[in-house]
Structure of Delta-aminolevulinic acid dehydratase:
Amino acid sequence: MPSSSRPPAITSESMDEILGGRRMRRNRGSDWSRRLVRETVLTVHDLIWPIFVVEGTGIRQAVASMPGVERLSVDEAVKDAVKAESLGIPVLALFPYTDDALRDASGSEALNPQNLVCRACREIKKLGLNIGLMTDVALDPYTSHGHDGLLDGETILNDETVDQLCRQALTQVEAGSDIIGPSDMMDGRVAAIRGSLDNAGLRHTQIMAYTAKYASAFYGPFRDAIGTNATLIGDKRTYQMDCGNTDEAIREAELDISEGADMIMVKPGLPYLDIVWRLKESFRMPTYAYQVSGEFAMIEAANANGWIDGERAMLESLMAFKRAGADGILTYFAPRVAKLLTERT
Ligand SMILES: NCc1[nH]cc(CCC(=O)O)c1CC(=O)O
Ligand SMILES: [Mg+2]
């Protein structure tokens, strides 16, 4: 190369001039400095731990598509509740794997005060732990067709479903649930449930609305865990949101908040961080994100293949939720990350 085409050598002095002294890397130079300038923190108080409950005693049943996640019989779920408290996790979310024989077209088991979720709530509550219990209001773990609502031909009935959801919520609260989580995406269910609870004198039961819940491919492993993958007829696009929409999430949030939701949620999580951000910026409500089963499975699968460092990916993904404005995250990583966080401090 002729020397005339060679650019002048870059020196520290010439870089000083270019940068005017502004070097972003200065603050990144040491661990203590990175900790000092970190804007967002993840703590155990940000975690909601979803667990699966199954019939029997002494049972811990692996879920193949969710490595490390198990279906627990009620007695084992009680042990995990004790573990949650000792780790400082504020809330457990309970989901049932209902025996096939108990699933029917109307999801009547949802109203049984002795169903798995209700029994688990009662047993956990007996211990008087410093944790909250959240229960899912939707019919899918109980219906033979796997839908969240009542089915008439191919139509999910909105208003008839809401009537049943109100009774399901009451049944759960009577068993000890602290937070009702309507995950069904029927219109008007937050107002209806709030009204039913208030009528029954249950004015202090909180509602965390699954406000922006999208029809998503990322729920697959969860449907394995609660046994609805095999039975689900069609899809949930007539009630869950379309993945192309974001203004619609704002309208959903306006409705849920005006109907009395105490907290709102976005689901799935990582692919929908823009929605988390918009809702938090627009409403300043306690806002949560659900890092769903498929997101968990992706990280676990890549880790199992040696393609990513699973532990770092777990922490980075959870930090991303906080950075986007989430006040907390429902995550199957909850016990693992809580353990890591408590060991470090
Ligand atoms: N009411 C259903 C419900 N509640 C929570 C999840 C998914 C959670 C996950 O994937 O981890 C779903 C799945 C669905 O809508 O089919
Ligand atoms: Mg809605």
Summary: Residues 158-175 form the longest helix (18 residues). The pocket of PBG (ligand 1) is lined by residues 136, 138, 140, 148, 183, 219, 222-223, 236, 292-293 (CB under 6 Å). The chain has one domain: 46-344.
